[in-house]
Amino acid sequence: MKSIKEEFFTDQEIVKKIKEGDKDAFCFIVDRYQKGLINFIFHMIGHYEESLELCQEVFLKVYSNIDLYDRNYKFSTWIYKIASNLTIDHLRKSNPRTDSLDELNEDDEKKIDVKSEELDPIEKLEKKIVGKEIIDAIRSLDPHSRELIILRHIHFRSYEEIAKISNLPLGTIKNRIFRARKELVKKLQKVEMKQNRGLKRIDKMEMKK
Amino acid sequence: MICKKVVELLPRFIENDFSEEEYNDILKHLKTCKRCKKEYESMKALIDKLETIPLINVPPSFKDAVMKNIKKGKNGR
Ligand SMILES: [Zn+2]
Q1: Chain B residues whose beta carbon lies within 8 Å of the beta carbon of residue A39
Q2: Are A61 and B66 in contact (CB under 8 A)?
Q3: Which residue among A10, A102, A178, A180 has its CA within the 20 to 30 Å range from the CA of B72?
Q4: ipTM, interface predicted TM-score of the complex
Q5: Predicted confidence (pLDDT) per residue in A48-81, tens digit
Q6: What is the pLDDT of residues A97-146, one digit of tens each?
Q7: What domains lie within chain A, and their CATH numbers?
Q8: Which residue of B has its CA nearest to A179?
């Protein structure tokens, strides 16, 4: 079981144990990466339950392919690469149920209610403590741009690591991230303009009263 | 420095990736050019928004579920 000592093993040391047949050691990998991966997948596919299922798949794949792991890569790079491949694949195959938070509000109100304890952060998003505009904007990007923005600005990965995860040259990655940011700014400005127009309309209605 | 050059450098500038010379030139430009200043501010606001998106919690049962699946050993190994 978990001992203090094991908490301080490097990823590489844990991987070595797993390769030697110590299945239990894998729980340290899960410990370290579950939160990051679930968040990554959730923002990619926009569906909580599905992101949990997909994350399960990612860990199973990581485990069953651990012999293929190349020590020249950072372990985190490898694990995100697997997550990225499975997620993009998932989006390609399924008609993604990327519910916008608006739809969540209307259709899944009960569902959210029942699970509100578990889904606390989603609830926070729902209640607009955090701008839901930004989350909707990320979801409206094409999957590859979405992935780059999530890795860079929600997961704080370096450009170098993102380049390795995506198998693309550093320059290309930077350009694509810069372009995606511009696209997001434009999308947010559009939303803001719409909201302002709405407010003006309400003002006018108030005045007529 | 001209606008075109500033706009080109802004994405790196925003992430604190610049030489001292670039830094001074860009600052000087932003003080006087409204358009570039606006571009800078909207870009900065976007990154601030992105970086304050809260993380979703992991259900406590998640890790056990993963380990159970692994121990079933249906995935090779
Ligand atoms: Zn300018």
Answers
A1: 55-56
A2: no
A3: A10
A4: 0.86
A5: 999 999 999 999 999 999 999 998 889 999 999 9
A6: 544 444 444 333 333 333 334 445 555 555 545 678 899 999 999 999 99
A7: 4-208 (1.10.1740.10)
A8: B11
